[in-house]
Amino acid sequence: MPPTSALPPATRHLADRFAYGVNDALRADLRKGGAAWFEAQLRRSEPQTLQAELVPLWFPALKNPAPLNALLDRTGIRPSRVVAGELITQTLARRVLSRHQVYETMVDFWSNLLYVPAGEGRWFSYRPAYDDVVRRHALTDYRSLLQATVVHPAMTAFLDNDLNRRDGLNENLGRELLELHTVGRRYTESDVRNTSRLLTGFTLGNGLARYDAGRHHRGRVQVLGFTHPNSAADGRPALDALLSYLAGHPATARRVAQRLCVRFVDDEPPRAVVEAVATAYRRSGTNIPATLRALVRHPQFRAAQRSKVWTPSDDVVRSARVMGLTPTGAPTDDSFVHSLARTALDMGHLSLLWPRPDGWPETSSDYLSASRVLRSWRHHYDLAATRSDLFRNVRVSSKESQLPRTWPRTLAQLVDHQAERLVGRPASDALVDAVAGALGVRPRHRYRDADALPDRHYQLLRGTVLNSPAGLQR
To answer: Most exposed among 46, 135, 236, 467, judged by the fewest C-beta atoms under 10 Å?
Structure first.
């Protein structure tokens, strides 16, 4: 029999797509019903966990102003790679600990769409503050999010808009704004030039962002049906008008909907669900919660169970959560959350480290190499143990808390229990046989209590379950 913690398949599917692993706390929330949980998540009405609230205190230097970041990098006291590493590690820690899982998922989604890497370029000093902006708008509306991110100094530096001026256009940001952030490849070169003209004036100096009206191009512009006299010295209202227009454009609605559906439905989502999501996006005035409601209520979403896989960055977070591992701090580089970042990088995917402005691919097929799978398997076995060199600054749940409450249990029953806990489905006969082979005992072997299950058997049991094909599927 499945354990009492088993969730309805539809509820588990919703959580697998919009959360980073179902741990005991999330399982308790989900018992109220998937729809109720999702609605509460959109409003963030449930109180945040204390552990998640404390995460920013683990990385206080991320609050440094940009000029100080630049100075510390130049003097070698705090290099840019350290800032990038701390931002990434803080991001993973929040995903492990936060009760607001839908929010963290959408922060990741928008960070990948409106992408600025946490690398070592000249934008690094502004990148932590950019993260704050994305987080502020992640569950508001796309219009506000677009307006806040496009003019942010991190985006300005990353796409060279500080080199853009009325007497010498730099079209990098103008082109990517159209192609990647809004309408896609349906623009003309004239559209790019006029968009770039409205972006003039936003510049950087002495480590600070500023608006220089003297650099702004004045004169009538037309972009994809949008027109504006652009006659004022201060061009910011004209740019806001363009960004509002682009955010609400039907092509932007389809592009955002397509990307959402590739992330949350399928690598090749059916046209019907994409159109439904795009319609909700436009009718709601780019409202993000309304758009997400249309997605999760669509039959094609409900029918797409286990059609996606966990990316490496998501996998290391999910594994920590379902294994009952709770980070408690990050004082040194060998702390648990730092090890998660290194492991994801070793697997070939680490959030915020894609080098190009298009963000990491959302398609699952990009994360299924043999080397990635083998490294995932090794990591799962490491986390399944009761002791590990990785377990520094982390609270490890007791073996008793992760196993059934009632005993005795056969090995087959334990495998089924762990399959429900770790991957959200009953164990197949093949999985039971695989675990039995790894342990060298029969499926009917009985354990009188948790102490009768040796630590090595406990590790192999959980690691093998998470390494099953179901453990990769999302």
So the answer is: 46
Run of H or E including 125: none
Residue type at position 440: G
Residues near 436 by Cβ (< 8 Å), separated by ≥ 6? 411, 412, 442, 443, 445
- The token pair at 119 is 């690398």
Q: What is the C-alpha separation between 369 and 226, in angstroms, rounded?
A: 44
Instruction: Look at the alpha carbons of 42, 10, 460, 402 in this order and tell me if their dihedral is positive or negative.
Output: positive
Class of residue 4 by CB neighbours under 10 A (exposed 0-12, middle 13-18, buried 19+): exposed
State the average pLDDT over residues 192-217.
95
Coil/strand/helix, residue 217:
coil
pLDDT band at 384 (very low <50, low <70, confident <90, very high): very high
Q: Which residues lie across from 226 on neighbouring strands?
A: 223
Backbone phi, psi, residue 221, to 5°: -130, 155
pLDDT number for residue 3:
47
CA-to-CA distance for 343 and 390, rounded, in angstroms?
11
Which single residue is written with the structure tokens 């998540």? 41
Mean pLDDT across the chain: 97
Task: Give the whole-angstrom CA distance, residue 214 versus residue 261.
Answer: 43
Report the interhelical angle of 288-297 vs 271-283 (nearest 10°).
150
Cα separation of 76 and 470, whole Å?
46
Helical H segments across 159-206, by residue range? 172-176, 189-198
Secondary structure E strands in 157-212: 202-205, 208-211
CA separation for the pair 105, 262 (Å, rounded): 14
Query: How far, rounded to the nearest angstrom, does the alpha carbon of residue 281 sit from its chain's CA centroid?
Result: 21
Return the number of other C-beta atoms located less than 10 Å from residue 231's C-beta: 10
Confidence of residue 120 (pLDDT cuts 50, 70, 90): confident
Residues 72, 80: contact at Cβ < 8 Å? no
CB 83 within 8 A of CB 124: yes
Q: What is the pTM of this model?
A: 0.97
Cα 137 from Cα 143, distance rounded (Å) = 10
Q: How far is CA 13 from the centre of its chain?
A: 17
> Tokens 């990517």 belong to which residue?
176
Beta strands 208-211 and 202-205: pairing type?
antiparallel
Q: Is the peptide bond before 404 cis (omega within 30 degrees of 0)?
A: no
Q: Identify the H or E element spanning 145.
A: helix 142-150
pLDDT (tens digit per residue) in 2-31: 444 589 999 999 999 999 999 999 999 999
Q: What is the DSSP letter of 63?
A: G
Q: Which two tokens stand for residue 338?
A: 């730092």
Question: Residue ranges of the alpha helices (H) in 59-141?
Answer: 66-74, 80-97, 101-113, 127-137
Q: Is the dihedral of CA 93, 25, 363, 195 positive or negative?
A: negative
